[in-house]
Specification:
alpha+beta
Length: 453
């Protein structure tokens, strides 16, 4: 299954979920906004109704005072007058965002002021202290036109607000019907994408489970084959060594017992046959050693490198009489003593094998502490350097040195199986370390061993 397809589907699902969340928040905000607008419209209609009712009540209170001369009606008229102004202010505040209503508010304020003034004139005209006297009925009749203009204007305002309220209610109803449908569709789409993603991931997990089972089965078959191959290699090696021993034994017997019957050419052939048999024996032994390193996982112990290297040097004592040995103080590590012995035996043996005859040879083994990094994590290592001043090697062949049968071009005529350094590399791997080499032709070689401290 294409990983990009799964990522795309999950991305679309998350995008739709995000859109659904944003849309839900927006719809809730819109509902609240419409609710506020409708509530404001209802308050506006109430202010209009209060203004209309206050206007009528003020006229009624003023008429009652003129007829009865009861000051109670006069005070009530004054209260209604103030109430009308309050209602007008409330209407103006509620409709400040509507230009049409603001225009009506200015007209209403003007007409309310005119009507209040005319009512006050009627009251004053009815008193004995009035400077100018009008016929009261004529004055009342004259002010009726102001009443009609006010009622006409207030009705227009009322109709305009009711029309606005009707439109707003219609929009709110549409939103109430459309929004659940839209949210339902988006929810279904999200569930569909998530469901499809779940199906794809389930299929992939099932395939991986099947692949894991198959891989486990292949690993078991491979381990079984490796064990069979190890047994076969062990048996085959021993079977190969037996005829080689016979060949060497017969060659030695021919040389010892019948050398007088052979000419120089025959003796040379026997010697070459014996040398080839010896090289074949060494090769088989090295292959067996490498095979054991690849298969065995021996328990580790504390190994004193100082003692191990001294034992190796003693084993080469007859070959190092004219070699200067410089052995530093070596640390104690955790490892397998047999493998460590083989490691230094191969390295020191190479240093002896590749000596130069034109210089005084030396072999130095020194130890240092070194910090190495794996990513950003530092680790402490024992850095062991095995250095000589022998024939050295060309750096371009360094990678070839640690492979099986990795013989360098410049040393192809030297005795050896070409497996020794590959054995060293495997030993370092078994100990969680690394091996590296550096050198120059006719300048010597250095082998760097890094053991975890």
């Amino acid at each position: 299954m294409n990983k990009k397809l799964v990522n795309l589907i999950f991305g679309i699902s998350l995008s739709v979920l995000l859109l659904l969340s944003v849309l839900t928040f927006d719809r809730l905000s819109t509902f609240k906004e419409y609710s506020d607008i409708i509530d404001r419209s209802n308050q506006t209609l109430l202010a209009i109704s209060n203004l209309k009712s206050g206007f009528n009540t003020a006229i009624a209170e003023q008429r009652s005072y003129l007829l009865t001369k009861d000051t109670t009606y006069y005070y009530q008229f004054q209260e209604e007058k103030n109430y009308m102004r309050h209602s007008l202010q409330q209407f103006s505040r509620l409709t400040r965002e509507d230009k049409v209503h603001q225009y009506y508010a200015e007209k209403l304020e003007e007409q309310v002021d005119n009507r209040i003034q005319s009512l006050l004139v009627e009251v004053i005209n009815d008193t004995s202290s009035a400077k100018y006297k009008y016929v009261q009925n004529e004055l009342i009749f004259k002010n009726e036109q102001i009443n009609r203009d006010f009622y006409e204007l207030i009705n227009k305002v009322d109709q305009h607000e009711k029309l606005l309220l009707k439109r707003r209610l219609r929009l709110k109803e549409f939103e109430e019907q459309f929004t659940p449908f839209l949210l339902f569709i988006l929810t279904l789409a999200t569930l569909g994408f998530l469901g499809y993603s779940f199906v794809l991931v389930s299929r992939e997990l099932q395939k991986r489970d099947e692949a894991t089972e198959l891989l486990q089965e292949n690993v078991e078959n491979l381990n079984r084959s490796n064990k069979e191959l190890e047994q076969y290699a062990y048996v085959a090696s021993h079977d190969l060594q037996e005829p080689l021993r016979k060949i060497r034994m017969f060659a030695t017997k021919l040389t010892r017992d019948h050398s007088e019957n052979l000419d120089e050419k025959g003796l040379n052939l026997l010697q070459r046959m014996d040398a080839s048999s010896e090289r074949m024996t060494n090769l088989i032994n090295d292959l067996l050693s490498l095979s054991r390193l690849l298969s065995d996982e021996p328990e580790k112990e504390n190994v004193k490198l100082q003692l191990v290297v001294n034992e190796v040097l003693q084993s080469f004592e007859d070959k190092t009489e004219d070699v200067e040995i410089d052995l530093g103080e070596l640390p104690e590590i955790s490892g397998h003593k047999g493998q460590i012995y083989q490691l230094f035996q191969n390295l020191i043996g190479n240093a002896i094998k590749f000596r130069r005859n034109d210089v005084n040879s030396f072999i130095r083994v020194k130890a240092y502490k070194k910090v190495r990094y794996k990513g950003d994590i530092p680790s402490m290592y024992h850095h062991i350097v095995v250095k000589d001043n022998g024939k050295g090697f060309d750096r371009q062949f360094k990678d070839k040195m640690f492979t099986v049968f990795g013989r360098l071009e410049k040393t192809s005529d030297v005795e050896g199986t070409g497996i020794g350094l590959s054995i060293c590399s495997r030993i370092m791997q078994n100990h969680g370390g690394e091996i590296d080499a550096d050198g120059e032709v006719n300048e010597g070689a250095e082998f760097h061993l890094y053991f975890p401290a």
